[in-house]
Amino acid sequence: VVSTQSTGDVEALFKSASKKLDGELAGTYYPLTGMEESVRQLLVDDHFLFMSGDKNLQASGMERDWPEGRGIFHNVDKTFLVWVNEEDQLRIISMEKGGDVLGVFKRLAGGIKAVGDSVQAECGKGFMLD
């Protein structure tokens, strides 16, 4: 069961760990709670922001306490994103316009490793293992 406490804990951990991302992965974390309307609209326009109202998420209890403990991170170039506590605790996404599939995959693989290393440094637990 995903509790209010665990959702908040995951958000706090990632919010802190995301500050360690550097290079092309460096960016900003935007919590849904207290988000300014101008930021929300920009994220909607970029098609990055997830919204409440999904019937399956509601039925499973995943939208409990919405929007508490949820947010989105993206890098400066908007090619690397992490959704926090949407359907997954962390959903790591790499994308870009064009056909550079190898570049997108390399960024995804590097991003997963960087997030894992940041989480490990932050709490001492292995990402996706503990």
Distance between the termini: 16 Å
Which regions have little confidence, pLDDT < 50, spanning 5+ residues?
none
Structural class: alpha+beta
Query: What value does the average pLDDT take?
Result: 90
The backbone outline, from C-alpha atoms, is globular
Indicate the radius of gyration in whole angstroms. 15 Å
Q: Return the string of H and E elements.
A: HEHHEEEH
The largest sheet is: 4 strands, antiparallel
Strand order of the largest sheet: 1-2-3-4
Counted beta strands:
4
Q: Which percent band covers the strand fraction?
A: 15-25%
In helices, the fraction of residues equals 40-55%
| Tally of helical runs | 4
Describe the structure concisely.
40% of the residues lie in helices and 15% in strands.
Explain what this protein looks like in three dimensions.
The chain has 130 residues and is α+β, with helices and mostly antiparallel strands. The chain is 40% helix and 15% strand. The protein is built from four helices and four strands; from the N terminus they run αβααβββα. It has helices at 4-17, 37-45, 55-60, 101-123; strands spanning 27-31, 71-75, 80-84, 90-94. Strands 1-2-3-4 form a four-stranded antiparallel beta sheet. Helix 1 packs across helix 4.
